[in-house]
Amino acid sequence: MGTQGVSMSPVKLLVHTHKPYLLKSSTVVHPLEHTIQLLKVSADTKNLRFGKMIHAHLIITNQATKYNRVLVNSLINHYAKCDQIMVARRLFDGMCKRNVVSWGALMAGYFHNGLVLEVLRLFKAMISLDYMWPNEYIFATVLSCCSDSDQVVEGRQCHGYALKSGLVFHQYVKNALVHMYSSWSDVKGAMNVWNEGPGLDVFSFNIIVSGLLENGYATEALGVLDRMVDECIVWDNVTYVTAFGLCSRLKDLRLGLQIHCRMFRTGIEYDSFVNCAIIDMYGKCGSISNARNVFDRLQTKNVVSWTAILAAYFQNGCFEGALNFFLEMEVEGLMPNEYTFAVLLNSCAVISALGHGKLLHARIKKSGFGDHIIVGNALINMYSKSGNIEAANKVFLQMIYRDSFTWSSMICGLSHHGLGREALVVFQEMLAAKECPQYVTFVGVLSACAHLGSVQEGFYYLNHLMKQTGIKPGVEHYTCVVGLLCKAGQLDEAEAFMKSTPVKWDVVAWRTLLSACLVHQNYGLGKKVAELVLHMDPGDVGTYILLSNMYAKAKIWDGVVKIRQLMRERNVKKEPGASWIEIRNSIHVFVSEGKTHPESNQIYEKVQELLTMIRPMGYVPDIAAVFHDVEDEQKLEYVSYHSEKLAIAYGLMKTPSGAPIHVIKNLRMCVDCHSAVKLISKVTNRVIIVRDANRFHSFGDGVCSCADYW
Predict the structure, then answer these.
(1) Per-residue b/e over 85-95, b at no fewer than 16 CB within 10 Å?
(2) Is the separation of the CB atoms in 614 and 683 below 8 Å?
(3) 703 phi/psi in degrees, rounded to 5
(4) Which neighbouring-strand residues pair with 40?
(5) CB-based contacts of 100: which residues, under 8 Å, 6+ apart?
(6) If 450 and its partner were Cys, which of 286, 317, 484, 675 is the partner (CB 3.0–4.6 Å)?
(7) How far is CA 383 from the centre of its chain?
(8) Can you tell me the distance from the alpha carbon of 554 to that of 368, in angstroms, rounded to the nearest whole number?
(9) Could you give the CA distance from residue 340 to residue 132 in angstroms, rounded to a whole number?
(10) Contact 529, 510 (CB under 8 A)
């Protein structure tokens, strides 16, 4: 039969497709296994739209009923993993009969959505209402919830239940138990579980090594790594990241090199976590060159790797290097994160680069990282150590969230600036906010008491409050107490305290007492303390200078000559005084009597002008402590052009009227400069902030924040 003249309509072919929701129910009904597999794919890829289409198809085909337990379980799993936990809960509540998979899928969903307490409620309901016996996956989920929410009682109950059921030896459960006890800092409990029964895999080793390391058991963690080698456990990337972290904690470069070589031999694939761990390890072990080599060879650099190398520069004292290297990161077009900013701000803090820190602060505001606690803490630290305590306090007051480091940084900053009463007020606010003080917090608090000379209050914090908070005093706290007694003029009590306190005193503590002997003119005790310090450290140049100044103040010139002779015999040289000031983002460095600056002539003229202005106000040059065997006229010349005077004169020349002047000095400020700068601040109507080797001096209207005790 022919086809000529017959009109043929186009034939639509039903092609094979992997999307069942495109097919009419009367045409094809896919097998249950296929649908479950598609729901699993949509859940694992978090493809909510695709899963909803499958769900709609199941409703149309009348398959997604409350009686179809397998399909509903798959839907619960899909919605839970796509962060639609309320939809998953409605499906769960509508089921006629649930099984252990139903409970497990919903619990996992709540856990991954951070609702750990709801998981524990479901677990109790599962046992008490449905009389279900949990499997290993449910136990692992519940134990993880107990870890995250510090539910110690419930966690131990689950451990007992798992032990009773025999599932405690299952790998999932065992690893979850080890992680739980480690997160509670119960290292003994973690090790007991880890050592019970056979079956340790690489995950078990990773968890216990990480737990030991986080709780300060570095030696024990190293022993577990040795066991991994002995038992020929194949290391994965997590193992290497943890191992490099262990090397960082131990600062063991040799071990780090060995582990790095092991990686080369095994040919394991490097990922960004491993690369950053290697850079961090070399940085903390003092090998900045190796850290840089690893960084330079990275094919792909992200913000984490850049932050790691910047942190390595910071940890090795290359503060300017970190700031300069950041410019290369900017050229690459990478956006810094909160950790990057923290490293850069802390670098500015060490070198007191206030101008650079202000630029970073502006950048932080613009990029929206100002609300991060780590950034706020770094800003407080930068402003405090750069001499702008008002800006530090402003950042502190504007912070929405604070941690113990925030409070400690503010307390220590105020104390370091001589604002003892303000520091103690902030400490009381910290206690009122239920924030637990740390070791360093009490260093700031006791230092504040020392500035105020509040002996009774200081001993209350040392003997009572530190004991209440469970913090054992260290040499730093005891040194603050020595300074406290010295400030109150109780030098004999300070010496008795040092002799009666069972702690290994360092040179800094004894030199604190020696400085007080100079201030209070107790030269007999001072000589005895100086001899003790020089016996501990014959090369401590600061002690020689203090002892020489003591002899000069007492007009014991033979003693001054003997000290100079002793220094020559022992080849001990006084470090040249140097000061620096930042003007328009440029650092200007001055040394005593130095004339290398391009504007030296104008600077010297400015110094003479200032000294002429303050002489009618009672200024008399103090030449007694000049460390040179020359005539008085030459001594006067030396004292007139100390580095801080040159820096302050240059600051007055180059900054607008009324602007504060910030100067950094490498040595302790001398008595003559201290007296002169007080009067200069009054006659010029300027705030002059000098950071010397000991503390900050904030001069204004003829007085200093240190109250002439430093």
Answers:
(1) bebbbebbeeb
(2) yes
(3) -130, 165
(4) none
(5) 132, 133, 134, 135, 138
(6) 484
(7) 16
(8) 59
(9) 50
(10) yes
Dihedral over Cα of 46, 50, 56, 58: its sign: negative
**Which tokens sit at 347?**
């670098």
Gap between the Cα atoms of 537 and 560, Å rounded:
20
- Contact indicator for 312, 282 with CB cutoff of 8 Å: yes
Give one DSSP letter per residue of 390-421, joined into a string.
HHHHHHHHH-SS--HHHHHHHHHHHHHTT-HH
Separation between Cα atoms, residue 552 and residue 548, nearest integer Å:
6
The residue among 142, 145, 144 whose CA lies nearest residue 126 is 142
Beta-carbon contacts of 517 under 8 Å, excluding residues fewer than 6 positions away, are 491, 523, 525, 526, 529, 550
CA-to-CA dists, residue 652 to 644, 661, 679, angstroms: 12, 8, 14
CA-to-CA separations, 410 to 276, 374, 378, 402, 448, in angstroms, rounded? 31, 14, 11, 11, 12
* Cα gap 504→516, rounded to integer Å: 20
CB atoms within 10 A of CB 471: 17
- The answer to whether the CB of 315 falls within 8 A of the CB of 287 is no
549-603 pLDDT per residue, tens: 888 888 888 888 899 899 999 999 888 889 999 998 888 999 988 899 999 999 9
- The rounded Cα 463 to chain-centroid distance in angstroms is 28
Which letter, b or e, does each residue of 2-18 get, where b requires 16 or more Cβ atoms within 10 Å of its Cβ?
A: eeeeeeeeeeeeeeeee
d(CA 569, CA 222): 47
Burial class of residue 264 (count of CB atoms within 10 Å of its CB; 0-12, 13-18, 19+) = exposed
Number of other CB atoms surrounding residue 82 within 10 Å? 21
Q: What is the pLDDT of residue 626?
A: 63
| R_g of the chain, CA atoms, integer Å | 35
**CA 217, chain centre distance (Å):** 20
The Cα 325–Cα 337 span in angstroms is 15
Q: What is the DSSP letter of 20?
A: G
Strand partners, 688: 661, 699
Q: Are 102 and 72 in contact (CB under 8 A)?
A: yes
State which residues of the chain have pLDDT below 70: 1-31, 624-635
Quote the CA–CA distance of 548 and 558 in Å, as a whole number: 10
Q: What is the pTM of this model?
A: 0.83
Q: State the amino acid at position 176 in one-letter form.
A: A
Residue 320 tokens read as: 């300017």
> Could you report how far apart the first and last alpha carbons of the chain are, in Å?
118
Question: Which distant-in-sequence residues (6+ apart) come within 8 Å of 618 by Cβ?
Answer: 679
Q: What is the pLDDT of residue 661?
A: 95
pLDDT, position 17:
43
